Structures are given as structure tokens and as C-alpha cells.
Amino acid sequence: MKRHGFFWIVLTLILLAAAGFALWRLLGPITVEVTQPARGPAVRAVYATGTVEPAVMLPIAPRNTSRLMELKVDEGDHVQKGQILARLEDQDLQKSVDELEARMRFAKIQFDSAQALLNRGLGTVLERDRARSEWQAAEAALARAQILRAFMTLTAPADGQILQRDGEAGQLIPANQPVFYFSCCAPLRIEAEVDEEDILLVQLGQRVLIRAPALPDQVLEGKVSEITPKGNPVTRSYRVRIGLVEETPLRTGMTAEVNIIVEQHENALLIPAASVVDGYVWTVDNHRLHRQPVETGIAGDVKTEIVSGLAETARLVVRPTDKLEEGQRVKVDAATSK
Known about the structure:
Helix 2 packs antiparallel against helix 3 (125-150). By secondary structure, the protein is of the alpha+beta class. Among the domains are: 46-55 and 186-264, Elongation Factor Tu (Ef-tu), domain 3; 57-182, CATH 2.40.50.100. A 6-stranded antiparallel β-barrel has the order 3-12-15-14-13-16. A 4-stranded antiparallel β-sheet has the order 4-11-9-6, with no helix packed on it. It has a 4-stranded antiparallel β-sheet with strand order 8-7-5-10, with no helix packed on it. It has helices spanning 2-27, 91-119, 125-150; strands at residues 30-32, 34-35, 38-54, 57-60, 66-71, 78-79, 84-88, 153-155, 160-165, 172-173, 180-184, 188-195, 207-212, 215-227, 237-243, 255-272, 280-285, 288-293, 295-299, 303-308, 316-317, 330-332. It is built from 3 helices and 22 strands. Strand 13 (207-212) and strand 14 (215-227) form a beta hairpin.
């Protein structure tokens, strides 16, 4: 009988302990992660992606269909103004030039003869003028043929670099099909597409921070140089061109991520963006929660600027939930306590 009573006493104590532990877990202090504000730059930026391109890029193509006979340069070569880049087959045009040269010489002889006869009183002004006209027409036809023949030699229009070559020796090149793409005269730039919701924030001359997948450890700088006034109704974006410095590790065709700096405050009071909910933060003072209204400034994905309403020494909950209550007792996570 005594053993039976002892069993019930022990069971009752165990149940009371379990109930007490459950009650403590339910009503006792909850553990929260806290942090303190920090000073740093607050930046509002417009994000976009773009492609590196030359500011001036020219296609170089023949005016007539012909076979590519000789290549003088290749992709990546730096060239000077007037330098020969390639030669195309021009035998037919050369024959035309030879024929027209002969006609021009004969017309010149005819004119000189008509002029001599007129000087001796044996010819007429009409005959002299007709001969002059035929000579001048022959000269013009020859000049045109020489120009057409000259177009079969592709030359550099200015000092620059060959970006791309689309042709091989022996290949038939159609008229106006580019054999080379050539850049010159200006540094590289980035052409980016900015969403229509952000374009009104973008202004000429704004500073731009640039990251490229090809250069993951570098942050480059540029400036907004052009903003296209007409947007694309399909993509709902506007073209923005960003000027780069003369010496840049970026290359034509690379992709880049750009952040156009719209506003920047130095030495701003910053807290985690997740700490602000509907204009309030939760602070911890003497192990109790307090709901504190704050005025925010520049808000980013990671950090938010606090303009007023929060002391620099305050401890605030990093990720508040809707279960927090004013005056609730809390336990600060030792890993985050300062």
C-alpha cells in the first residue's frame, strides 16, 4: 500500500514539473536577435544591366559585289587612317579604267585639234565646243571609274581598332556587306536599359558604379552621358549610355551591372532593412520590448537609413514578428548581444 502511494506522489511531481516547464515555455521570455545602429554611407541607386560597346563603331564594306582577294589586318589590330585593310578583285573595273583613259586621251587630241583649227581660222567655235564637251565627259567617266576601282581597296577611315572581321580570302562579298567592324575616336561606353519606373530618377552626369562578371573583384566607375528621350513600349525601358574612362579593363561586348547613384548621404545612421516594419522598430531595454516609431530616409534591400527616432546606442530586434508585444519580457541571443 505504501509503495502504491509513493508511486502516485512521484507521478504527480513529474506532471507538475512538466506543466511548469510548459507554462514557462509559453509565458516566459522569448529569445530575440538584436543589433545596434551603425554609421556609414546611405546610397539610393537605380539598377540596370547593359553591354559594353564602342562610342563610335563603323562597318566597312565594298560598294560592289566582288571576291575578297587579300586581307591585310585581323581582329584586334590597331590601324591608322588610310591604312589598307583588304583588297577585292577589281580586274573588270581596271579594264574599264583603261578603256576610259584611252577615250579621254583621244577626246583631248580632238579638242586640241579643233582649237588649233579655230586659231588659224579654219574651224568653228561650235566644233571646238563640241570637242571640249566630249573631252570633259570622257574625263568625268574616267574619274568615276577610278573611284569605283578605289572602293575595291578597303581602307581605315581614321585611327582606331578592328573589332570584327567577317570574311575570308577567296570569299564572294556582296555589295554593302561589312567585311570589318571598326571603332575609333572615343572611349568605350555601356548601353543599359533602365526600367520606365526609374528613368525619371536618372540625370546626366550622375555617378555610376559598374560590376562585370568578367571582373568579379573590381568596381569601376562611369557617368551618365546620354538618356534616350523615347522609351521602348515593348520592354518598357529607356536606353541610357554610360561613359567610361579612357583606360578601362572592360572589352567590347562584355555584360555589366550598373548602379546609377541617385542620392548619397555620408555618415548616415543605418539599421537592417528587416528591422523596420510599417515605420516602427522594436527596441530592447532592460530585457523588455518597446515599439519605437522612426523616420526613415534612404531604404535599401539590406540597410535602411534612420533620420530620427532612434538613439545610436539603442538595441533593436533584427527580425521582428507580429507576435511581439509592448513590454514583453525577452531574452537576448548571446551570439548577437553587444
